[in-house]
Amino acid sequence: MNQRIKAKHHFILPLADLITNFYPSLELDLRAAKINKTPKEYLIPLLRNSLSLFIIFCVSAFLFAYYLDSLAKLPWFILFVFCMLVIMTLQKLMYPKYLAFGRIKRVEANLVSALRNIEIQIDSGLSLYQAIAHVAEGGYGEISEIFTEGVKKMEIGVSQADALRAMVVDNPSFYFRRAIWHISTALTAGGDISQVLKDIINNLVNDQSNQIALYGSKLRPLAMMYMLIVLIIPSIGTTFIIALISFISTGQYIGYIIFGITEILVLFFQIIFLGMIKVRRPNLLKEND
What we know:
0% strand; Receptor-associated Protein; single chain; mainly alpha
């Protein structure tokens, strides 16, 4: 594979190596996002497509500028295209990290309820394998998928401790890794798994409470900014514009245009605030909590 990559894309490899050196965590992000590619396998098509688009846009721009006799503006257009393609490439480069962050939220949203289910199953007399199999079929989203892979490994003869350790490999959630490692250690040492689960759940609930308190402290300044930008400034600005228009003779539609722009800006900032609130939401909470 590496020889084929070198043969086909030798002119892109130095740039791919440079990006890999500046972004060494790309390999971890790819594995956490379940993208089965090496950093070079991911970067080379990305850089090749960006370079192809740049060449196509530059050639098209040159032809248009030549026929329209505006070659003086061509360097500015090429600079603009270059900057836009760099931004698009950086966004694509960060896409694995975005996918890994999404996995973290999906895993941690159901982590407490899934571990509590395992604890209840063990306390009722089931084995750890049966409890994990029950969670795998319990509709816990990403956790059920991870446990399903673990159950399959156990069914083909892999020990429970090794199957549990395999679950945490490339898993981006710190809370999930810590919980499974504690269960695996207790299983290997012959400890009381039920008590270990109780301790893990209590720690997660405490972390959940701390996250909720921190979330509330972050919401207060956001609420003040929301009131200032979306409520107070538009209200005062609208009043000022109405008073100004009444003293200045303007066109018939200038008032409608100003108020329309104000409404669009208010809607834009409301969407931004909703996004900020969602991003800051604790991962250990379900979406419907």
